[in-house]
Fold this protein.
Amino acid sequence: MKKRIVDYLAGQPEKDIVVKGWVRTKRGNKNVAFIALNDGSTINNIQVVCDVANFSEQTLKQVTTGACLSVTGDLVPSQGSGQAVEVQAKEIEILGVADPETYPLQKKGHSMEFLREIAHLRPRTNTFGAVLRIRHAMAFAIHKFFNDKGFVYLHTPLVTASDCEGAGEMFQVTTLDLDNLPRNEAGQIDYSEDFFGRHTSLTVSGQLEGELGATALGNIYTFGPTFRAENSNTPRHLAEFWMIEPEMAFYDVNDLMDLEEEFIKYLVQYALDNCQDDLAFLNKMIDSELIDRLKSVVSTDFVRLTYTEGVDILMKSGQKFEFPVSWGVDLQSEHERYLVEKHFRKPVILTDYPKDIKAFYMKQNDDGKTVRGTDVLFPKIGEIIGGSERESSLEKLNRRIEELNMDTRNLWWYIDTRKYGTCPHSGFGLGFERLLLFVTGMSNIRDVIPFPRTPKTAEF
Ligand code: 4AD
Ligand code: MG
């Protein structure tokens, strides 16, 4: 395989190498030019040293920020500090110029807002390079974690006829002519004429199909895009985000919490072990407490307490919240962060939520009021995981579906898992971008996914 800059920087001096990449900066004087070249393989640039006398004025003029070069030269021990080796250039081929008048990434320190407007070019910045490499490393680690444990990666559909979370926040999928909709005698839209012969949407979660997998294969996980048409313009919500959803037969809620905690700690430790340069960069430029925070999470036991206890703490806190707290309300990010950042100063797993604020599939407790749901709450983020033990009783599940007036016609296959060989089982969903917010220290979820989808934005 061709060597890249990351390999040369870690390697020994060598004659006649070729490095290709994009110019980050050029500086120097009339005798010598120093070019910082980056090819995306590492946050670190390789320094290319050119004796000005050996190159045409025309060539050096085209070596501007953003230009793409192929450099032939010798890899030699560096004269300067800051790098062990550098390239003494013999030939420079300009593969692609970047007009300094129009190339938008000229100076350092562009705002995140500005970079979102040039999402097609922002991967060329140090920050986004680091974030995207960490994103890759985390995706790999997720597969490794589950593969090592014998979980089966189950591919669940993106187009679906069911609303797993029951929140009605789905993007409709249709090929009907919106200007000329077919209607039945009652005047309603006739979806039997639609592509799938029924009303369909993009999935909000692969869980329901995941449960079909778990009740056959034992332990499965999904890892794919999910879609929510919620109009939440917050730094923690995307309309298209990636979710990891493991589902395990014979796990009760305690087994579930153990796995949630083990999983996140594994991923954070993996980042600490394998993404050192990128984390050091982000720690320096974005969030000076990042690495300390990552280390503290892997070495601490998560607090486990019930929703009721959590609400009690919040009500007694004397804290003025924007949204007042009382038993029964859905907790807001400000409440979750108070528990995690101010009260306990460590991650918290809340359990036994009121059934009315959770989805239909959660296992009902004997008190008739709460369900075995678990939310994992993290510093800076709030909810990072939502999960539960599932209701395994056919009778109780059916009653809940009825209470909520849900359409059972679309769920008959799901209900069959409780009818035939039902079993205790549990699962959770980790928002991949929420994890990345935590691991990278970035503060807006739009900046941990290459091409964010949010209300009114789908340009790139
Ligand atoms: O809590 P949620 O809605 O749970 C489920 O979807 C379950 N079906 C998961 C399961 O048990 N298999 O979402 C799970 C996680 C949240 O904790 C959060 O991290 C993330 O998905 N999430 C979002 N991330 C980004 N943008 C959004 N709009 C998100 N909504 C949820
Ligand atoms: Mg949730």
